[in-house]
Amino acid sequence: MLPKGHKLPDNFYSSKKVIAPLGLGVQKIDACENDCMLYWKEDKEMQECKICHHPRFKPRRRGGKKKHKDIPFKQLSYLPLAPRLQRLYTSKITAEHMRWHKETLSEDGKLCHPRDGEAWKHFDQTYPSFAIEPRNVRLALSTDGFNPHNQGSRPYSCWPVIVTPYNLPPWMCMDRPYMFLTLLVPGPKSPGRSLDVYLQPLIDELNILWNVGVETYDVSKKQNFQMKAALMWTISDFPAYGMLSGWSTHGKTKDNVKARLDLQDICKRRNLELKEMNGKYLKPKASYTLSKDERAIVLKWIKDLRLPDGFFNTLKRKVKNKARVEGSIVESYLIEETSTFCSHFFAPDVETRSRDIGRNDNVNKEGHCSSLSVFNVPGRLFGPKTPSRILTPAETAASTIYIMLNSPEIVKYIERYDAEKYAELPDLTPKALGVMRDKEFASWFFNYVENPTNGVTETDIRLFSRGFSSIVKRWNGYFVNGYRFHTLEYGETNSTMNSGVCISGSYYDDASIDYYGELTEILELSFLGPADSTVVMFKCRWFDVGKQE
């Protein structure tokens, strides 16, 4: 299997030794058991805590060998941030994407990335010397405690600190390989207000990255530059927010009387303001207040709800030795980090875990490539085909006009049709034109294409105008754009639900209507021409959101 002169490692331990030099390593910093201080920098050689005087190392056993290393009561795992940011510029896969926020125009009016927000723009105006270099890194920090053991086991609180670079595009910046584990605060107890003690190494490095930077080689431009970084956001729940900021947040919620009184001065929402009666404040009920039976339904739904695994759940699965929680997590994380980085340099045809097609990813159509984009939509049908059926005339008409109106190549014919109607009826309103288009455009389009005087010679357009077969195939599910859809009937017995749909559409001239419904059928429509000239349609049952029942 391997070329001559090469051989596989004998075991997993040997394989880890082979890839160890490729990793970025981890710094182990001893800490006081009471979270008072780190044995770091000028305190590195101290043998006891300078605040509570607790010994640094566990006492040796009687008769123990003196050559054995001392074992600290507590140890912080610190994974330096700067080398991990530099590594993003050593691979062409990530180096070019680190400039995405500057080189790609944002869609007007749409907030799809932090660079579209006011905070990013204000930062650029305040620090133009930083913003002028698009390769400087914008960071966000997140932390929370989690129990690495199973529910019901002994309590344990481990606190990872995650740093994410937001230079990357939306589909990469929240991906697991680019969420850097920088600190692993040891348990078994929460650090509480002493979290800042463990953040010292990271804060020190962030100061260097902001004030000085580090020289970095950019493989995409084949040049060195001084990379700087700025921590722009922290993301956490309310208790962790108090620990990170150092502020007291106990009792500071949005639901107390003082907070509700602020509504009168800040929000101006009269329906939510407190009303004073007989020396007491009465809280008005919100419009979404649930009855007892309705609360039971919602709570049952939450109980059965299954959410995707988060990043911390991934760290939890790395614990192989419950007596050494932090060591297990860090060792497994370093191996995964190294293997992901190395996969960037493999040939394109080499399959790796990071290149694996996700279970919900669609597969591009191969073979015939039509000039009509509606036939080239990547998607994958799944599940056994259910018996075919014949569309009703109403279903055929609705499907035909929907497909035509959503085909970019047909836009010029739609514009010609609209121009003719406006010439005939100058006072025609957009809503009335939409109604006429739904009823007449399909037949008008067919007659226009078939008329030789109009000079329509494209084969795909001519075949498209003749429509599809009324006999359609039925499927149970469909993968498209990274999402999995299945029919309501197919998922009745499943604990997960993938049959709900929502379309932000418009009804003629009204662009404010959103449609909500349930997927009842997945239909594959076959047009004339090559075998793969097919379009997948969803038949849905729509809800009337205007009713209160």
From TrEMBL:
InterPro entries: DUF4218, Transposase_21
Domain DUF4218: 312-360
Record-linked PANTHER family: OS08G0208400 PROTEIN (PTHR10775), TRANSPOSON, EN_SPM-LIKE, TRANSPOSASE-ASSOCIATED DOMAIN PROTEIN-RELATED (PTHR10775:SF182)
Protein name: DUF4218 domain-containing protein
Species whose genome carries this gene: Sesamum radiatum (Black benniseed)
Origin organism lineage: Eukaryota, Viridiplantae, Streptophyta, Embryophyta, Tracheophyta
